[in-house]
Amino acid sequence: MAATFRDATEADLAAIVEVYNDEILNGTATFHTEPQTVTERAQWLKNVKAENYPCLVAEVNDPATGGKRTVAWCNLWHYNMRQAYDGTAELSLYVHKDFRACGIGAKLLERTLEETRKQGDRFHAIIAGVTTDNSRRTRFWAEHGFELKGTLKEVGRKFGKWLDVSYYELML
């Protein structure tokens, strides 16, 4: 599927919230359990931009409106707030449920990493925390150069079950 990629803006917030809240309510890719508001996500985006972390979206042509539709987003953020971790960032990637498994997530990840590399030696390592209940999700990270570094057993509880989280790392 053809998509275009660009920096996220406030105009994308409603779509970002739609994608994220669907995962909050129906998935395990995030351990948030309460839906987010546009206001909360606006503060999140403001913080990401203020600290010059990459945050990109993927758009597709929407035949229903004749315009563009934001269907995915990817960003980096602090892995840990302690200063010695400043060269390490955690990556988040979310794709609308109707647009998964068609290559948009992979291309968005690639573009986000390109933007990350443009910042020179600011980032040394990228971390992705991934719940292990979805084998397609865990394969995705390995297929894109991230190495499995370890799994924490039953560290999050969602939908009445304990979930494991694996940590994948990409060295830049």
TrEMBL record:
Keywords: Acyltransferase, Transferase. InterPro entries: Acyl_CoA_acyltransferase (IPR016181), GNAT_dom (IPR000182). The keyword Protein biosynthesis does not apply. GO terms for molecular function: acyltransferase activity, transferring groups other than amino-acyl groups. This is GCN5-related N-acetyltransferase. The keyword S-adenosyl-L-methionine does not apply. PROSITE patterns: GNAT (PS51186). SUPFAM superfamilies: Acyl-CoA N-acyltransferases (Nat) (SSF55729). Residues 3-172 form the N-acetyltransferase domain.
